[in-house]
Specification:
Largest interface: A-B, 66 and 66 residues
Shape of chain A: elongated
CATH class of the largest domain in chain A: Alpha Beta
Largest sheet of chain B: 7 strands, mixed
Order of helices and strands of chain B: HEHEEHEHEEEHHH
Helix content of chain A: 10-25%
Radius of gyration of chain A: 45 Å
Distance between the termini of chain A: 26 Å
Number of domains of chain B: 1
Number of helices of chain A: 17
Number of strands of chain B: 7
CATH topology of the largest domain in chain A: Rossmann fold
Structural class of chain B: alpha/beta
Structural class of chain A: alpha/beta
Number of strands of chain A: 36
Oligomer: heterodimer
Chain lengths: 738, 254
């Protein structure tokens, strides 16, 4: 460029003697032309050719398909969903005109975005979505899926009852996110005022609770359009009311917290239902109750140990129980009788025997009761016999009872004539006496497989282990119960016959919902402490008592049949997956066993049935589809030992009232805030029409293809340069400058 | 339901008991124990049985005062002989130095104690730093090297297992406190230098064999009560530490 300018300047300067301005200007102009042409050649200019097309933008119409759209628009008239369909029919022309400028994309949304047919939307469809996620729908529609076209705007048709990210309103973060979408969101709210409704909005309870520990369920009630109505809120466990609380609504107070407390008295999985009555004029009745599943477990086994006198049997059993972190031990020992003369009472640490407390109302708080050489008779002032029927009923109702031998137990304690005889696993023979001789117990066939006496390593190893244990030196003479009693002798004294049969040493019995255990000797401690002298340790003793306790309290790992739902609650229409575990008489996995499973409604009638065959690992799976929302008890029945049917139960809930059903109030203010934040228009139905539909600034064209064409490499460029140079040379020669 | 009648002794006891006894299980003494508690007296190489009538008398006092029933006589046991575990409660007394335990004896005693056994060690010679005291301390340290002898705190359940005891008695008053070796939170070995056996011992004619000095008969009664508490502890462990007992015990202590 500088060289070109310099050559032009030199040309002008060399002609400074020329008086004829025309010549001077002409030659300088020729030099300028030459310089320009030379620059043109050096810079190699080109022309860029662009191929462009015109593109139509997208415009999304999002229609709310969540279940809250089934609520009335106002009063008891058309639903919000029906109003939405009518709105689309009414404003079809405007939308058609909009469709001439942009491509309309129709979708429904609840939890997820789904493409929709506009005709079907205008015709009306039953909304089924279980949640409303406005922000999620807007995120999804702006992401655009596979389309690369720009979204010009959104028309959001909803009641605004968001129960996802915007459930608490349009937060600053949500507002910023909406603005970052750079898409105007135009909104039409369906519903102005909440209908008259009482709803259980929320039930806050842990997934599991500890048996006999008080559990509090926090219930949040939401009331719209109601006065100072009073009613009782109840908590039911499979039909039975376990807690209730009076409630009085306060006009103007939308939410009320009501705590419901109760102490579950049994372990297992239960369906609990919080229910409020349907008040007159309520628009929605489905949300007046809510079910949830509660799994009740033990924190620790609560064991009551009652000993008739201090003894080594009591001492070592206490040692095992106190060292077990899963056991909460409560003990009462008779340390003196009335005939003992220890001296002044105030110098003793003894307490009155709290018979009323432990055998009365508190009895049901224990998982198991152990009577260790304990007689009911000698303490006449206490009248313990009055409490024996209660102890019997406690066992029949699900408790565990163990009676250990000694001179105050079984027949020696004259239990044969008490109600406890109905539940003991052996027949106490009153007056039969004790045998005080060396007795080496022997496992029975059942005992070889039973979890209490199976000491591990298989049947033969268990039998050998028991033979190697030290003998006992005292045995209460009892008689085995007959077949059909539910009793099983696990360990017997082969050389001590009672009515021609070996006397039981360890026996168990299923009684009603409970279990009982008899250990007819007071020398079980020898299986631990005396065995330890031989170098074998006391593991067998510890295992025996640990297994016995777990069996008594029905430890889930020691049940022959288990059924558990894969999920505690399922959505309406979804099948319930049930996993089953079958164990044999030896409590190892039992393959090839047929198990029938039933779902029972709250009225106890079966609503679905299924069957399965256990696999090699003893497990099986069944899928049952319940008829609808509600609480269902699951009952499984399977083949057990020959001639026996094992049963197991659990519970499952089918959600009826989720967050969609719980809150019937429309939230037009949320939709208006969304429109305001994004620059869209808004309106409210009823009363309002289609708002001014704001769209993003359109871009007319998009570049499809581009091409660069050089323009310097033409022949005429070079010819012009040569001509310019030549003309200047000729003129300079003629005018005498060279 | 047939109920046995009260015996004359039971009736008299119930009447004599008055209001306080009414709170107790009033009624007949239970049948003789099917498995009475046997105390094993350790035979060691020294003078192992300086008070021959002591344990018999302790058993008699236990039967008279409590529901514990013992065998009439203690069983003499050797630490290195089979059958040591038939008696979870061992009593080791001595007058003069105890010959060192063999490795087998120490191992057997260690195993007995580790699996739940209880050993009461009673010095009959009143030694403190010599004689029985020095030798048995060395042997106990060999048996349970990780559990040194330490004084039993006054608040320990041992002093309230049956009687509310605030000091130990004995034939002598060498030490006001007991010492113990603790395993897993349990007193496995309890050692007294006050010759409890000397305070318990009674002749066939019913006379106390040794005077208790300096406290006389109250000191003997304390020794008997401590013996009862030791037997209760061996058989019931920390039963009296259970929460249900605490309000009663605190009330009587104050």
């Amino acid at each position: 460029m500088l060289a070109a300018l310099a050559s032009v300047w030199l040309a002008w300067r060399s002609l400074r003697g020329e008086v004829r301005l025309g010549r001077r200007a002409g030659l300088t102009a020729l030099r300028a032309v030459t310089a320009l042409l030379a620059l043109f050649l050096l810079l190699e200019p080109a022309v860029q050719l662009l191929q462009t097309v015109r593109v139509r933008h997208r415009f999304a119409v999002l229609a709310d398909a969540s279940r809250s759209m089934r609520f009335p628009l106002e009063g008891a008239g058309a639903t919000r969903s029906e109003a939405l369909a009518a709105f689309l029919r009414e404003h079809r022309p405007e939308l058609q005109r909009l469709g001439e400028r942009v491509d309309l994309e129709w979708s429904t949304f609840a939890g997820e975005l789904t493409a929709a047919d506009p005709a079907a939307l205008a015709a009306g469809a039953a909304p089924q979505g279980a949640r409303t996620d406005l922000l999620g729908a807007l995120r999804a529609v702006t992401a655009g899926g596979a389309s690369s076209r720009r979204l010009a705007g959104v028309l959001l048709l909803s009641d605004g009852a968001d129960n996802a990210a915007l459930s608490g309103g349009l937060t600053a973060a949500a507002r910023a996110e909406l603005q970052a979408l750079k898409v105007p969101v135009n909104t039409v709210a369906f519903g102005r005022e909440p209908p008259r409704d009482l709803a259980i909005e929320r039930v806050a309870a842990d997934d599991f609770a500890f048996v006999r520990n008080t559990l509090t369920v926090e219930v949040t009630l939401r009331a719209h359009g109601l006065g100072a109505e009073a009613f009782t809120l109840v908590l039911r466990r499979e039909g039975a009311v376990v807690a209730q609380a009076p409630v009085r609504l306060v006009p103007g107070q939308e939410r009320i917290q009501v705590p419901l407390s109760f102490a579950p008295d049994a372990t297992g999985t239960f369906v609990l239902t919080v229910a409020a009555p349907v008040l007159p004029g309520e628009a929605v009745t489905e949300n007046n109750q809510r079910s949830f599943v509660l799994r009740v477990i033990r924190d620790r086994m609560r064991v009551l140990l009652v000993a008739g006198r201090p003894s080594w049997d009591e001492r070592f059993l206490r040692g095992v129980l106190k060292q077990d972190p899963n056991v909460d031990l409560v003990s009462f020992y008779i340390l003196r009788s009335a005939s003992d003369t220890p001296g002044p009472q105030d110098q003793l640490s003894l307490i009155p025997f709290p018979v009323q407390e432990i055998f009365g109302p508190q009895l049901k708080t224990f998982d198991a009761v152990i009577l260790c050489n304990f007689a009911y008779q000698p303490y006449r002032s206490l009248e313990i016999e009055r409490f024996l029927p209660g102890l019997r009923d406690y066992v029949k109702g699900g408790g565990g009872l163990a009676m250990l031998g000694g001179e105050q137990s079984f027949g020696e304690g004259r239990y044969g004539e008490t109600p406890l005889a109905e539940i003991l696993p052996v027949v106490p023979i009153d007056g039969a006496g004790l045998v005080q001789e060396t007795i080496t117990p022997r496992l029975t066939a059942e005992g070889r497989r039973h979890p209490i006496t199976a000491l591990g390593g298989g049947e033969a190893a268990s039998a050998a282990a028991w033979e190697a244990l030290p003998p006992v030196e005292s045995l209460d003479l009892t008689r085995p119960l007959g077949p059909g009693s539910g009793a099983t002798v696990l360990l017997e004294a082969p050389g001590t016959l009672v009515e021609g049969r070996p006397a039981p040493v360890v026996a168990v019995r299923e009684v009603g919902a409970g279990r009982s255990l008899a250990v007819t000797t007071d020398g079980s401690w020898r299986w631990g402490f005396v065995a330890a002298e031989r170098g074998g340790g006391d593991a067998a003793y510890r295992r025996f008592w640990s297994s016995a306790l777990r069996w008594l309290v029905r430890d889930p790992d020691l049940t022959p049949l288990k059924v558990e739902p894969e999920q505690p609650a399922v959505e309406p229409g979804a099948p319930i997956g049930l996993s089953l575990q079958v164990r044999g008489a030896d409590f190892t996995p039992a393959p090839g066993r047929k198990v029938a499973v039933e779902l029972l409604g709250e009225d106890g009638k079966p609503v679905a049935r299924g069957e399965a065959l256990s696999g090699a690992d003893g497990s099986a799976r069944v899928e049952l589809t319940p008829p609808g929302p509600g609480a269902y008890k699951v009952v499984a029945r399977g083949e057990g030992a020959p001639g026996q049917v094992e049963t197991a139960s659990s519970a499952v809930a089918v959600r009826g009232a989720g967050p969609e059903d719980a809150d019937s109030a429309p939230r037009r203010e949320l939709l208006e805030a969304i429109a305001e934040a994004t620059g869209g228009g808004s309106s409210v139905v009823p009363g309002g029409g289609l708002p001014r539909l704001a769209t993003a600034e359109p871009e007319v064209v998009e570049i499809g293809r581009r091409k660069d064409v050089p323009i310097w490499d033409r022949w005429w460029t070079l010819a012009a340069l040569a001509a310019s140079l030549g003309l200047e040379w000729v003129l300079r020669r003629r005018w005498g400058y060279w | 339901m047939a109920m046995p009648l009260l015996s004359r002794r039971q009736l008299l006891a119930a009447l004599a008991g008055g209001a306080a006894a009414a709170a107790w299980p009033g009624g007949a003494r239970a049948s003789p124990a099917s498995s009475p508690v046997a105390i094993g007296q350790v035979q060691h190489g020294g003078r192992w049985n300086p008070r021959p009538g002591a344990l018999r008398r302790l058993g008699w006092e236990l039967a008279r005062r409590t529901s514990i029933e013992t065998t009439p006589d203690a069983a003499a046991v050797r630490l290195d002989a089979p059958g040591l575990h038939r008696t979870p409660f061992l009593y080791l007394a001595g007058d003069g130095a105890v010959p060192p335990f063999s490795e087998a004896e120490a191992a057997a005693l260690r195993r007995h104690l580790q699996y739940g056994g209880f050993l009461l060690v009673d010095s009959a010679d009143g030694s403190d730093g010599g004689g029985f005291d020095a030798s048995i301390r060395a042997e106990l340290a060999k048996v349970l090297p990780a559990a040194p002898l330490r004084p039993v705190p006054q608040q320990h359940v041992l002093y309230k297992t049956f009687y509310l005891v605030d000091h130990q008695g004995g034939r002598l008053a060498v030490k006001p406190w007991l010492e113990a070796q603790v395993l897993d939170g349990r007193l496995a070995v309890v050692y007294t230098q006050n010759d409890l056996g000397g305070a318990w011992a009674r002749s066939e004619l019913g006379d106390w064999e040794y005077p208790c000095t300096p406290g006389g008969e109250p000191q003997r009664e304390q020794a008997i009560r401590l013996g009862v508490n030791l037997a209760m502890y061996a058989l019931c462990l920390d039963y009296k530490d259970d929460a249900v007992h605490l309000p009663f015990i605190l009330k009587r202590r104050t």
